[in-house]
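Open question from group meeting: does this chain pack into something compact, or does most of it stay loose? Before anyone orders reagents, we agreed to write out a predicted structure and look at it together. Recording both the input and the output here so the notebook holds the full record.
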Amino acid sequence: MSDSSSFAQHINEGYSTKGDFITLGAAMLENEVIGDAHVKIPLKTLNRHGLIAGATGTGKTKTLQIIAENLSEKGIPVLLMDIKGDLSGIAAASQGHPKIDERHQKINIPFEAKNFPVEILTLSEQNGVRLRATVSEFGPVLLSRILDVTETQAGIIAILFKYCDDNQLPLLDLNDLKKVLQYSTQEGKEELEKDYGRISTSSTGAILRKIVELEQQGADLFFGERSFEVQDLCRVSDEGRGVINIVRLTDIQDRPKLFSTFMLSLLAEIYSTFPEQGDSDRPELIIFLDEAHLIFDEASSALMDQIESIVKLIRSKGVGLYFVTQNPTDIPDGVLSQLGLKVQHALRAFTAKDRKAIKLTAENYPISDYYDTKEILTALGIGEALVTALDEKGRPTPLAATMLRAPMSRMDVLTDTELKDLLKKSKLADKYNETIDRESAYELLNEKIAQAEEEEAKEAAKKEREKLNKSSRSTGRSRSSSSTTEKAIVKVLTSATFIRGALGILNKILSSKK
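Structure tokens returned:
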């Protein structure tokens, strides 16, 4: 048996599957494509998460596109984070190319140009279905971790959430949260201290500064109503294909805090609302996180713990997370160890640091009798990748250098006109693009403060009136007393006895002088 035939048998046995699957491409050996050795990924293991890595320009985004298309074909909804803005073309069919035909002839997979059902979502003021969540839905624990506050400050946030729950004060947006913080150390200080304990002004000030920092990254657009319902990510088209939801993030590349805030909120909501799936034959939803390092670069240790916990637990809900980044070392070890599918595009060794990273990357893959992993990592061409996955029994498949199939949809963005037409067809825009500003903590506390001020003003006016009345009565008594004295003096002076007495004294004086 020749090397190529034994290799083909090795790949086919390792990637054999009894259930449904998607095909990524055909395996290669010594730069030759083995057309009858297809690399197939069982749908059953796609909720075990994955990694797509490689240097800039090696084809990571196209690999993401290929997997998303094939999942949609199988009726599985997809959520894509479009940081670079080059995924909208999935809504249009491929224009075809002789090189695509040549590639598919080599890998022995028929090529068919197709467009796919797409929903455009947005976190910012860009056109698309608006994604929002309320502060209350976020909860005190996740909010504290996003804000990276101290343990004491996290306790204060928890107290304020409890106070709002107890007093029916909805926390919808960041204005609500800021108002409650201010109220807790000013007008409502005595009220909160009585029932919830003392709240430090310096701590609330620190929390407020963290919230302002989050606002400056655009979070004020994210927090509010109407809240996005994560079940709307799991829609299937009338033709039975999974809807590909694309979140346009091109204008928040320099705002990683907003991106990580949104992602953690979304994952936490999915985990809390999706039913347990157990060992299902297919995933419920697959999420691709392009430029995944944005989530991890500025994450605190508490936030990292939260991310790792969600990654470990969310697969039981039938949700797979796929991290797309340049180097596997961008992903923390605790997360990397949870990833079942790994698609590794070429890495470039320009420096000693690069060579060290390649060596570490090679150690993440199964040992192969057919490849020197360190060498092949730098020799892969565009649209080629090392692939290893999990078979239906959860075992790692053999390492396969793979020539990947081409995307069936357009490998370019939609024109402005095409994008507008797509947005007009949206089935979610009417539901989520209406801005709702109902009465919440901000308005209710302002009303409460106004009522308190009005009552204080009435009380002050009452005391002032009482003071004036008291002063008036005192003056009246003084005048009455003076008038009585005057009358008494006049009475005495005009009385007959007084006159006689006075005249008697005068007579005596006059007689003595004589």
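Observations to bring back to the group:
Residues 449-513 form one domain.
The chain has three domains: 3-132+225-432, 136-220, 449-513.
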